[in-house]
Specification:
Length: 431
């Protein structure tokens, strides 16, 4: 069938020749049509750009690989098929006293996709990426071969596939180790800061003493914001109710509702809203604030938006962050929920993993065509001069030179790409 797949950013537009709905992990892979780019796994479609798109090729829809294989509630070791979502995992394990060891900002992604993009979360400074907690997975290649990969067995395939963008073959199942919790409740500490110097001071003060730490920043006002740090609480205390169903964005506007006027008004209200210095919160709204609004990507209109996420190395991160906020403020573009965080030193086993020691900024820009692309090129120049990198899972337009400089293991990785697999992202930047 012809694909209707899109990215979460709704840009770039995508055309795929065929889709294959996978439901049996024991079955062989389909053979790509002659003359087409090949195969690519596609889960929930929450990547922002073209890393999960395969224009003119075939998409392997993995959502049908949705079975739990094994779970030991005594040790927290979980094995599940690659199409199981993080939301489904949490539904199973939270009542039994477990949580994901690392989670991105949405729980509506597949386990296989989370491994392929080596997702990170608010606890990276201590826990590293999800790849640091993967115990094993099965990799199915287009030649029919299967490898059970662990840090010790087929270690090279293990390193190539974690963060490997779905290009080394199909991940059929994954085994991870979970985190023990007493209850799904966090004690959250909040502190306002008036600029980036305030962020660095709070990060040094609070970051080392809390498992989770992140800051919302006002990208139009020099980086003022709210720093939040959190830890799961122990037993006892009053229970905190889980959030009820997500609100729906009831319309799909033809133009972006995010503009200079709405952005300044929102950021001012958000910064000055009453925020408790310390309190209890159910973990879901802390980890997944945007999951509370279904189809929130429609806010940016039918032309879509660009998410820009960079990492800046320690030696240059303070100066480069200041320069990024200066450019963004001068251009008057940005997003409601810009996120700033400091990554830790724990290295991922993935060769192409994005997180590395330093600071990371993530924010959205409505697609206004040439104006937005020009702004992104200005930000690229700052990131490149700092020796930083952009996140492939969020990218729809980074220059090839920045991809090559940001991922020095690319030549090593390329030898492990399945010859029958490809993606729009890979052909655009590396193939």
């Amino acid at each position: 069938m012809t694909s209707g797949a899109t990215s979460w950013g709704r840009y770039p537009p995508h055309r795929a020749a065929r889709e294959w709905a996978l439901s049996d992990r024991h079955a062989a892979l389909p053979i790509p049509a002659s003359g087409t780019p090949g195969l690519l796994p596609h889960g929930m479609g929450r990547s922002y750009g073209d890393v999960a798109l395969n224009d003119g090729g075939d998409l392997l829809r993995t959502r049908g690989l949705d079975r739990f294989i094994a779970f030991d509630p005594a040790t927290g070791v979980l094995r599940a098929e690659a199409g199981v979502t993080l939301d489904e995992i949490l539904t199973l394990v939270m009542p039994q006293g477990w949580f994901l060891p690392v989670t991105p900002g949405t729980r509506f992604v597949t386990l296989g996709g989370a491994v392929a993009n080596d997702v990170h979360g608010k606890n990276h400074h201590g826990a590293g990426t999800l790849g640091c907690h993967v115990r094993a997975f099965e990799l199915l290649r287009s030649d029919g071969s299967r490898r059970t990969c662990t840090p010790a067995d087929h270690a090279d395939w293990f390193g190539a596939t974690i963060g490997g963008l779905g290009l080394t073959g199909l991940i059929t199942w994954v085994e991870i180790g979970l985190e023990r919790i007493s209850q799904p409740v966090l004690r959250v500490v909040n502190r306002r800061f008036s600029g980036l110097e305030g962020y660095w001071a709070l990060d040094a003060e609070l970051g080392p003493h809390h498992a989770h730490a992140v800051a919302w920043v006002d990208c139009l006002r020099g980086g003022r914001g709210i720093f939040s740090a959190a830890d799961f609480v122990g037993t006892g205390g009053a229970p905190v109710a889980a959030p009820t169903g997500a609100r729906q964005l009831p319309l799909d506007p033809p133009f972006s509702l995010v503009n200079g006027l709405s952005l300044r008004a929102f950021n001012t209200l958000y910064y000055h809203r009453p925020v408790p210095r310390e309190g209890l919160s159910h973990c879901l709204p802390f980890f997944y604030p945007l999951d509370g609004v279904a189809h929130w990507n429609r806010l940016y209109g039918r032309a879509g938006f660009f998410q820009y996420q960079c990492v800046l190395p320690p030696a240059a991160m303070r100066e480069a962050a200041r320069d990024l906020f200066s450019v963004i403020g001068q251009r008057g573009q940005g997003s409601f929920l810009a996120v700033f965080k400091t990554f830790g030193t724990r290295r991922s086993p993935g060769w192409l993993s994005f997180p590395r020691e330093g600071a990371t900024l993530a924010l959205d820009f409505p697609n206004r065509g040439a104006t937005t692309l020009a702004l992104l090129r200005e930000l690229d120049a700052v990131v490149a001069a700092a020796g930083g990198a952009l996140y492939p899972a969020k990218d729809a337009r980074m220059p090839r030179a920045l991809f090559l400089s940001g991922y020095p293991a690319l030549d090593r990785f390329s030898a492990y790409v399945d010859p029958a697999f490809s993606s729009s992202f890979w052909r655009r930047l590396a193939a």
